[in-house]
Design goal:
The complex is a heterodimer of chains A (527) and B (234).
Chain A lengths: L1 H16 L16 H19 L5 H16 L4 H19 L11 H50 L3 H16 L2 E7 L5 E3 L9 H13 L3 E2 L11 E7 L2 E9 L9 H65 L4 H32 L8 E3 L1 H12 L8 E4 L7 E3 L1 H17 L7 E8 L6 E8 L6 H4 L20 H11 L3 E6 L5 E8 L12
Parallel strand pairs in A: 7-9
Antiparallel strand pairs in A: 1-2, 1-5, 3-4, 4-5, 6-8, 9-10, 10-12, 11-12
Chain B lengths: L8 E5 L3 H13 L3 E5 L2 H11 L3 E5 L7 H11 L4 E6 L3 H9 L4 E5 L3 H15 L7 E4 L2 E4 L4 E4 L2 E3 L3 H12 L4 E3 H9 L7 H15 L9 E4 L3 E4 L6
Parallel strand pairs in B: 1-2, 1-3, 3-4, 4-5
Antiparallel strand pairs in B: 6-7, 7-8, 8-9, 10-12, 11-12
Helix pairs in contact in B: 2-3, 6-8
The chains are: A alpha+beta (527), B alpha/beta (234).
Chain lengths: 527, 234
């Protein structure tokens, strides 16, 4: 929001500052306009008409005209003042000097007065011109400073590189009355045209830009190199590094650039270069952070995967070795160990695959009408041995409607939540699964809740509960900390969600939600 | 370990040598004769040569997609085919079942499961014992008079519920995809109307299962369809 308001404020500023003479008005301001001559004539005519009726001597009139010339110095340029001196001298002679209404021969006194006219007019004109030039220069400097200030403000406010380049280019368009473009240097050499540019350089212009990028020097129109090009191409450099090329295509009628304009354009290029450098540094920093994070994850993954894989493998190998030699009773125990180890491996591989599928975007839910009871049964069967010695209570209303879900995903969601409950609660404590329709929000949601009577969710785990590799300290051996992350991923993929909370009366409770939709009619038969 | 006098031959098509070895061990122990093939093409030519009684086909073969091997087998014969697949291949499992596979198993699987599936498949190639009644649990279905009894009490089924039950009995112990059931009962246009099936399954379970929330006979195969288990725990 901030960036937007800054941007519009700038546009308004540009409009007011340059209304009287934008930098894009390329005509020189030093040529006095025709209007100033008219103004001179008008003032002299008015003074003459008024004085005609006043009983003053022609000498006094001479002073009046001198005063008029001096006053005009304040309003008009050098040449109109001189013109004012000549006109007022002629009018004074013709109208007021006796004989009136005819040119008369000058006396020495009158001649001297006329001489002073001209000297005063020339000096005053010079002074005025100098002051005006100074004023104009100040104004240009101020405009340049304002333009650059607003440019930096807009750039600082932009959230992305694209936004910033776009803002900069629109300001360049307006300020210079030109078409502008930015070509960004690619890492492996060459230039990419930024899409926001209003100037679409052709092949020839691209070649000029490439030359600029290669030689780190400006080129194109108004420069000594490749001056026949349509555009002026300025390099964007930071610490000797080529970041890109800023190209401007000025209207064909512009014959030359003033140093001020040139300066401002270079200022723009520098600001853009700063922006690009900042962006590069930011991207580099982010990349570094990303690598550090993925490195950490990799280490965690490797550590726990190798632990999780090696434990059942050790069991398998040792049990396999013993099978040959042990008696029948021990063999039964060993095969039990083997079965447990393989189940554990199976679950581990499934979770790793699921997490990988989630992260690579490989989970594409096939939503179809499902019966919640089916998920719960399938999950219970999948969890199998782990539930031994547990009381699992289910509470599902008879009239529970069908839900739209992906059955295999839901089966794993419920299985993971059941296993999670088993892992984090004391052996033998009960687990309850309930389902129903939650009418709280709009059309309602179908929920499935798995509640236990364990110690509940530790406060320090709550925030990152559904993050991968986040394992509870109280968890018994086993598990990578992927279960809940997969639950969340699968639920989100199906347009549902999962929440965790306290089970009233002690323990934790996890609830998954699915949208409640109404299915079409089911054809009835002779019931 | 009684050798079956009929010498039933099973063709195993799987590229993993260890799986083939273990399958051979299990199947020979159970009295079957085992033939092996490492690739889809080798499997097809072995099928031509040996004409086995059943085929165990892995879906992930190196040379041909399992579904294609299945289609070529089906061009030649209605031999029972048991598909082996790995976790996460629901799509290809359904495709294989719709293309005529009789059942599937997901790796890793137990010996007991494998042998039970195989027995169920082989049972069907033998002509069904001419019997007018079919029993499961405490339920007796009189196929001729279209009557159903549970614990000695008559159960009233609608004609659609009965048709569903009949379909399951006909394909007992075999996975049926949603599409197969819907097409059979409601016609090809209803293939996508899974909610019909879910609703009728719920009704059928309510009438015939002992525990509606934990069905023993009418089991759901997640994402695939249903399986009618005529002798649970076997």
């Amino acid at each position: 929001m901030l960036a937007v308001s800054r941007g519009s404020a700038f546009r308004w500023d540009v409009a007011t500052i340059f209304k009287r003479g934008r930098l894009s008005d390329w005509k020189s301001e030093s040529v006095s306009s025709f209007g100033e001559y008219l103004e001179v004539l008008g003032v002299i005519a008015a003074v003459t008409v008024v004085s005609w009726f006043l009983p003053v001597s022609y000498h006094a009139m001479g002073h009046v005209y001198l005063l008029v010339v001096i006053l005009l110095c304040l309003r008009v340029g050098r040449w109109p003042v001189l013109f004012a001196a000549i006109v007022s001298a002629l009018v004074w002679n013709y109208v007021f000097m006796p004989p009136r209404m005819s040119f008369s021969v000058l006396h020495f006194d009158d001649g001297m007065l006329l001489g002073i006219y001209f000297i005063v007019a020339i000096i005053a004109g010079q002074l005025t011109a100098r002051i005006r030039a100074q004023e104009r220069y100040e104004r240009l400097r101020e405009r340049r400073a304002t333009a650059l200030f607003h440019l930096t403000m807009a750039l600082a406010g932009a959230r992305t590189l694209d936004e910033a380049v776009e803002a900069a280019l629109r300001q360049a368009d307006e300020l210079f009355g030109a078409q502008s473009a930015v070509l960004l240097a690619r890492e492996k050499g060459g230039l990419t045209l930024h899409a926001a540019g209003s100037f679409r350089p052709g092949e020839q212009e691209r070649a000029v830009a490439e030359w600029v990028a290669h030689n780190h020097r400006e080129a194109g129109r108004f420069t000594g190199v490749l001056a026949s090009a349509e555009g002026l191409h300025l390099p964007m450099l930071r610490a000797g590094q080529m970041l890109g090329v800023f190209a401007l295509r000025l209207p064909a009628e512009v014959a030359a650039l003033s140093p001020v304009q040139r300066d401002l354009m270079e200022g723009f290029a520098v600001q853009l270069a700063l922006l690009l450098e900042r962006e590069q540094l930011r991207a580099a920093g982010e990349r570094e952070k990303f690598f550090a994070e993925s490195d950490r994850l990799h280490r965690t993954l490797l550590d726990s995967v190798s632990h999780e894989l090696k434990t059942p493998l050790a069991v398998l190998r040792s049990a396999g070795d013993k099978l040959d030699t042990e008696d029948a009773r021990k063999r039964t125990a060993l095969t039990g160990e083997i079965r447990t180890a393989t189940n554990r491996l199976d679950h581990l591989v499934a979770n790793l695959l699921n997490q990988t599928r989630l992260e690579s975007g490989g989970v594409r839910p096939q939503l179809d009408w499902c019966d919640v009871r089916d998920f719960i049964n399938a999950a219970r069967r999948a969890v199998g041995d782990a539930m031994t010695g547990r009381v699992l209570k289910t509470e599902i209303p008879d009239d529970l409607p069908l839900c739209m879900a992906d059955a295999p995903l839901m089966e794993q969601v419920i299985a993971n939540l059941l296993l999670n409950a088993v892992l984090h609660t004391p052996a033998g404590s009960p687990i309850q699964v309930s389902a129903g329709v939650d009418h709280a929000a709009g059309a309602g949601r179908i929920f499935i809740r798995i509640s236990d009577r364990g110690a509940g969710i530790p406060a320090e785990l709550r925030e990152n509960l559904f993050q991968k590799f986040n394992r509870g300290r109280t968890a018994r051996a086993g598990g990578l900390g992927l279960g809940l992350s997969i639950v969340r991923g699968f639920m989100l993929a199906q347009g549902g969600e999962v929440t965790a909370g306290d089970n009233p009366g002690g323990g934790a409770s996890f609830t998954v939600y699915l949208r409640h939709l109404a299915h079409g009619n089911v054809p009835n038969d002779d019931r | 370990m009684t050798a079956d006098p009929l010498r039933i031959e099973i063709l195993v098509i799987d590229d993993e040598v260890q799986i083939r070895r273990l399958l051979r061990l299990t199947l020979e122990d159970a009295g079957y004769v085992v033939r092996e093939a490492e690739t889809g093409l080798a499997g097809l030519s072995e099928f031509e040569r040996a004409a086995p009684d059943a085929v165990i086909l892995d879906l992930g073969l190196p040379d041909l997609p399992g579904v294609k091997v299945l289609a070529r087998l089906r061009e030649k014969s209605p031999v029972p085919v048991l598909i082996l697949s790995v976790f996460g291949q629901e799509g290809s499992k359904i495709a294989a079942l719709d293309a005529g596979a009789d059942d599937y198993l997901t790796k890793p699987f137990g010996d007991g499961e494998l042998l039970a599936r195989l027995r169920a498949l082989l049972r069907r190639i033998k002509p069904a014992v001419a019997s007018n009644t079919f029993r499961f649990g405490t339920v007796v279905v009189d196929l001729e008079r279209r009557r159903v009894m549970k614990q000695g009490q008559a159960v009233k089924l609608t004609s659609m519920e009965y048709a569903l039950l009949q379909l399951f009995i006909m394909h007992r112990d075999k996975a049926l995809t949603h599409r197969q059931v819907l097409r059979e009962l409601w016609g090809p246009k209803a293939e996508a109307q899974t909610h019909y099936l879910r609703t009728y399954m719920m009704r059928l379970r309510r009438k015939l299962e002992d525990e509606v929330d934990d069905p023993q006979y009418f089991q759901t195969e997640s994402g695939i369809g249903y399986r009618f288990v005529s002798e649970p725990g076997n």
